[in-house]
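Input/output pair, single chain:
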Amino acid sequence: MATETTLTQVTTPQKAAVGAAQSPPQTHEVHKEVAPVDESGIPQVFLSADHSALCRVRVGDQLPAMNLPQLSGGQAELASLRGGKATVVLFWQDDPWMSEMALKDLANEVAAISDVAIVGIAVKQASSDVQAALKTAGAEFPQLLDNDGKAFNQVGMVKMPRIYVLDGTGKIVWFDIEYSQSTSRELKQTLAALTAGK
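Output:
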């Protein structure tokens, strides 16, 4: 069966050289096939061989246990922040567009869903930079600090943002290694399936 392909265009301004006029906005294009949905209503995860090689955990695995500093102070076990029906875990770094889009979408469209928790894990970022990015995005959900990148190294390599949805037991039911409009759509489908029949 043929699959539909979506094209996501995200426009971001490029930094202008000192004393020069600002460059025109740069358009990023993300092509992603629309994933079929399994019997549970959760989109299936399809990765190229290259992208699969960057993943250390996949659908059906438990996300590794993590005990990390909190942006708000103290330490926290990731498992202690899980939601009743689902947990969205976002590993992110400061970047021109994907992480900002992910933080804004989670704050505006996911945070209000009952029985769903959101946890951000900021990878190799200064606390001040994390606070600034969260303020820009209007994101107020818990943030853990992976200062040396070892927590992220347990789940994958290189590509971020990386977003995981866990069920009530902490098992990975869906994930993506980018963030685009397609990612947002599949995330919402996954959460709708996990929270159906509340």
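Helices lie at 49-52, 98-110, 127-137, 150-155, 181-195. Residues 1-31 have pLDDT under 50 and may be disordered.
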